[in-house]
Amino acid sequence: MGPEKRELYRLPWSMNDNPIAWLELTDICNIHCDGCYRQNVTGHKTLDQMKDEVDFFCQWRNPDNFSLAGGEPLIHPDVLELVSYIATRGVKPVILTNAKALTPELLKDLKKAGVAGFTIHIDSHQERPGWIGKSESELNELRQKYADMIADEGGMYVIFNSTVYPSTFSEIPDVVRWGQANIDRVHGMVFITYRTATLDDSVAMDALDRDVDISKLSYTRDSFDEEFVTSPQVYELLRREFPEYDAAAYLGGTVKHDSFKWLVGAQMGSRHKVYGSIGKRTMELSQTGHHLWTGRYLAYLSASKVGSKIFLLAPWDRTLRQAWKNRLAYLLRHPLSLFERIYIQSIAVIQAPDILPDGRADMCDSCPDITIYDGKFVNSCRMDECRLFGGFVTVLDKDEVTAAKN
Ligand code: SF4
């Protein structure tokens, strides 16, 4: 199930040459999401501490953008100074936010400070005041509010994230349909499949084989009886509902050869019609071309504002050629569409870490969301294990441990 890996481009990112630097301003948040992996332990970082992290990332990571995350970064009192500091270093500051604190006034100030864009996380498991109990489809109204606010201000891009639970899997097409109808103002959508560790059937140990209490982590549940959604399942659903969509690139897992941890595609179209997607060759040319030109890889293809010029690559890219044919066929039937603007909109699926039966975690190979803890790079999704237990923990099935002891 899922795409063939050889039909996709393996993103060329690595530990030291990666377009994304994940910098957390705070571990305090103004709402509570079911899928969140950050505990409130230390509060806001100081501006000096964050500037040191910026310098560290610039020295060791070669980022094209900073993902300013949390907690909720917009409640940090120094967010504008930090954005400005990053922008003056020639790197794009991007805010990862639930947007609850985002107002038109703050947006103006952030733009003035140099923010490049936003990744806004909205889904139906957030305990968001005023939106509790709403479906993903009903939440499109809230997504629209922020998409319009950012488009009206202009000059910044916006991507919408949501965590996918077994119960919301079938609602993904509602979000994509909304995104396609707003392709002129929504630059991408990201679907992150929910994962949790459970307490009922597992034991956890630190690096010294001491038992640890993983109920202290925000991403553990007493039990979880449903089947986790996988990225190939999301891919299949997207292909079924939106035949014009296709994936073009991936990151695999650190343990399992057949994992699709990041599955990335980009569709292209106008406000009235989506013509198709780019293929692996265009993705490869974009990454290597950007690296040749700027010395850095690219995090968001849609941010490059290439529009219909991308069709120039059609001779080298089978998937893009099909999109171009679809565009020509549509033009013949609707000649006025010649004047429509063409937009690119990315769709990414991220499959969060999977705990394997032997206790290892299958992580994202060349993890793009690495952050800094104690002077070292760590995967941001597991940093709380370091903060609470001094390092990553191993989670094993209780029955298997008992059997091994007997
Ligand atoms: S391994 Fe990295 S990219 Fe993957 S979910 Fe964790 S932090 Fe995100």
Describe the structure.
- This protein is of the alpha/beta class.
- The chain has a single domain, classed as Aldolase class I (TIM Barrel, Alpha-Beta Barrel).
- Helix content is 28%, strand content 21%.
- It has ten helices and 19 strands.
- The strands form five sheets. Strands 1, 2, 3, 4, 5, 6, 7, 11, 12, 13 and 14 form an eleven-stranded mixed sheet that branches.
- A hairpin with a 5-residue loop joins strand 15 and strand 16.
- Helix 1 packs parallel to helix 2 and helix 2 packs parallel to helix 3.
- The longest helix has 16 residues.
- The relative contact order is 0.15.
- The mean pLDDT is 94.
- Iron/sulfur cluster (SF4) binds next to loops.
Count of alpha/pi helices: 10
Bound molecules: iron/sulfur cluster
The CATH C-level name is Alpha Beta
Count of distinct strands? 19
Taken in chain order, the helices and strands follow as EEHEHEHEHEHEEEEHEEEHHEEEEEHEH
Radius of gyration: 21 Å
Helix content: 25-40%
Overall pLDDT metric: 94
> How far apart lie the N and C ends?
39 Å
- The fold-level CATH name is TIM Barrel
Instruction: Using the 3D structure, state the CATH architecture.
Output: Alpha-Beta Barrel
Q: Decide which structural class fits the backbone.
A: alpha/beta
- The low-confidence runs, each spanning 5 or more residues with pLDDT under 50, are none
User: Which of globular, elongated, flat, extended, rod-shaped describes the shape?
Assistant: globular
Q: CATH superfamily name?
A: Aldolase class I
Strand content: 15-25%
Major beta sheet summary: 11 strands, mixed
How many distinct domains? 1
